[in-house]
Amino acid sequence: MSAVALCISGTVLTWDTILIALAVPACFLALWSAYGAWGGRAAAVWALLPLSCLLSPGVSRLMFWYCHQEQFSSLAAAFAPGSAGGFCLSGVVMGFVLAVALLRLARLVPDGPLLLDCAAPGLALGLSLLRLSALFNGSCRGKAVITDERFQKLPFAAAVPGGTEFRFASFFIGALLFLIVFGILCALLTRRRGRRGDVFLIFLLLYSAVELLIDSSRNDATYFHLNAFVSVAQILSGVTMLGVLIVFARRSARAGGGKRRRVLCCAAWFLGLCFAGFSEYLVQRHGNWQLGCYTLMSIGALILIVSTLAVYRPVWESGE
User: Which of 137, 203, 216, 221 could form a disulfide with 231 if both were Cys (CB 3.0 to 4.6 A apart)?
Assistant: First the structure.
């Protein structure tokens, strides 16, 4: 159930819908300012706006329908106005990348990697607002029920709409983390070095680390039909982070980075993955160990980030 904000001539607008709508201009204003500062053409942004607004919600909703077909009578029902259910945040990013790729194929965007670099901070800001929209509905709440009255408030917990219990505010922590990612990417973009597209790869790395952690804590995570242990977001996050590691390792080799450095960083990366995987196993087997498990998972996610960036450092320093 979503909190109603306005009712005009029979049309009901909820607060979460308003925040989701605000995420679009927030993302594109940040993209426009960054792309213009790097010499990009405004026409490319205007071409991207309608296509990404079609593909991002479309892909995210399609992913949600595939994993929750029991909630809908048909695929068309999942896209009908006013239909219930949520969306997969991973689909938002995938739809945006697909939109850029299609415009690049149509030669409407002369430099796709530069556009993605400039879009990275805006995407992080938009994702932060998308996560925050869950404040006004019952989605993205944690598995843990907060019974201590001192912590029954943000950023620790949020009430479940229509109920009396307070659950861990997974959505709010996710929104805060994406806001931090936005600041980091803005700083990186102002000092952009290396190849075009690297800032966006760092965005994918940080985004995946946030999703790896937050989606594990959710009580409404989305799973593939053949797997009910690791969520869709966690699987995609792990694959994405591995892909970024491979790309950066190959570029580090070309930039003259030492082989020993790459081997150590890759070993540390797999150690971080083991930490994250083991803590996911423990938290699903021992629900009362959540604080320790998520502390270990956070350490694992941090190791994944640091080891990947350590592989990338020779590329950044060489400017290649």
Answer: 221
pTM beyond cutoff 0.85: yes
DSSP state letters, the chain? ---EEEEETTEEEEHHHHHHHHHHHHHHHHHHHHHHHTT--HHHHHHHHHHHHHHHHHHHHHHHHHHTGGG-SSHHHHTSTT------HHHHHHHHHHHHHHHHHTTS-S-HHHHHHHHHHHHHHHHHHHHHGGGGSS-S-BSSB---GGGSSTTTEEEPTTSS-EEE-HHHHHHHHHHHHHHHHHHHHHT--SSTTHHHHHHHHHHHHHHHHHHHHBSS----TT-SSS-HHHHHHHHHHHHHHHHHHHHHHHTT--HHHHHHHHHHHHHHHHHHHHHHHHHHH-GGGHHHHHHHHHHHHHHHHHHHHHHHHHHHHHT-
Instruction: Enter the tokens of residue 154.
Output: 């943000």
Angle at 290 between CA 289 and CA 295, to 5 degrees: 110
Tell me if 272 sits within 8 A of 303, measured CB to CB: yes
> Which among 77, 63, 55 is positioned nearest to 222, based on CA atoms?
63
Output the average pLDDT for the chain.
89
Average pLDDT for residues 299-312, to the nearest whole number?
A: 95
CA 117-119-120 angle, 5° bins:
70
Amino acid at 221: A
